[in-house]
């Protein structure tokens, strides 16, 4: 995935499925400068991981 698409998904009012290493995730935050995104296992999870946007799959 690229940062532009990640931003569209992040700002969408709809739930758009995104996966990281085969797992369904939520995009929690975008960092366009570093091309990294913070992800969570679900919307209410407090655990956050930072991964390259290119590793996300729609």
From TrEMBL:
GO terms for biological process: asexual sporulation; sporulation resulting in formation of a cellular spore. Keywords: Sporulation. InterPro entries: SASP_SspH (IPR012610). It is found in: Spore core. Transmembrane segments: none annotated. It comes from the Bacteria. Its main location: other. GO terms for cellular component: endospore-forming forespore. Belongs to the SspH family. This is Small acid-soluble spore protein, H-type. It comes from Alkaliphilus peptidifermentans DSM 18978.
